[in-house]
Amino acid sequence: MKQDMIVILDLGSTENTVVARAIRDMGVYSEIHPHDITVDGLKALDNVKGIILNGGENRVVDGKAVDIDPALYDCGYPVMAINHPTAKCEQKFDSVPAQEVLKDFVLNQCKAETNWNMKNFIEDQVELIRRQVGDKKVLLALSGGVDSSVVAAMLIKAIGQQLVCVHVNHGLMRKNESESVVEVFQNQLHANLIYVDATERFLGKLEGVADPEQKRKIIGGEFIRVFEEEARKLDGIHFLGQGTIYPDIIESGTKTAKMVKSHHNVGGLPEDLQFELVEPLKQLFKDEVRACGIELGLPASMVYRQPFPGPGLGVRCLGAITRDRLEAVRESDAILREEFEKAGLDKKVWQYFTVVPDFKSVGMKNHARCFEYMVIIRAINTIDAMTASIEKVDWDVLEKITNRILNEVENVNRVCYDMSPKPPATIEFE
């Protein structure tokens, strides 16, 4: 890392990311580390210019307030404390500091340079990837989601054809998503891409399965098996690319003692994994991942892709999946996304999608009675996905979406708008 760095030591704060983001917004790189980092551990970091001690409600563990190694005060770095400050730290504040106070500490006292930006980050990562991988090959599961797509673009820039991407179409993707992956990565970026159409395999395994958890397990397990089968056909793979991002690291290893969880790079990876991991995005927050993707030349439609559950449309086709309802979900979702984009809601609403339940209602079509499915529209806003509020979509927009769904989607005679916040509802239906 060529950029200057401010290190935030977590002494129980719930606002570590607020401080980290404020510093990065100044153009200075910042990282959050556990309070018990050693002097050697601190000095092993590149270009540290200052230390912020960030106390908070979780600082007391087993009746005792945690603190840093006293030797860190004598390392020669400027130190500032926020909340629960210690006697040895001369500069103290009672809460997250105002922007100008934080800016004065970072730029004037620490003399950190404002050289944190995506162009420099990408240059650093390309160099690090080439140094790590050498002339070996990297395998990457390319879902089409923003994290795996940006990792793929980064690795293509760094090592080109040494990257082998595997895209598994399980038949539960949104409309044209697999085609988009192939177009961008194979035809535009000329990636070494293996495309696997496993639609029939997945839908066969899911036939008659109504329980949401069972559906998730079947989809997740089958995906791993397909990926492993493709990997076994390849020779010379030494590395596994992963879309780990910074919140994954923070949640698993930077809080006070009673909050620490075991860190796993990716859930489900075996402990005896034979590959070395390549994780070029592990220092980025989600919005920074998107900025990185734009800088790498990925299309905005891919970079700003809506959050999408791992089982795909399998948990939006409620109950046992049938092909007619799966198609109704796919087509109605495409209409919703198209109309939200026209109305400028695609950048305003955090997540929006359609679901089709596994029951029918009576309706009228072509002057005759019909018995068909309903489509439910859900549009929510959230900061942390722990709670969510309903987007108050303009009535004219909803009416246009409803008319298009009823006229263009087969086997549908009713459209509803979900008004349930989280809690008591959840974001997804299953």
TrEMBL record:
Gene3D superfamilies, A to Z: 3.30.300.10, 3.40.50.880, HUPs
EC numbers: 6.3.5.2
Gene Ontology cellular-component terms listed: cytosol
CDD domains on file: GMP_synthase_C
Binding site for ATP: S143, G144, G145, V146, D147, S148, S149
Domain of life: Bacteria
Pathway as given in its UniProt record: Purine metabolism; GMP biosynthesis; GMP from XMP (L-Gln route): step 1/1
Stated name of the protein: GMP synthase (glutamine-hydrolyzing)
Species for this entry: Eisenbergiella massiliensis
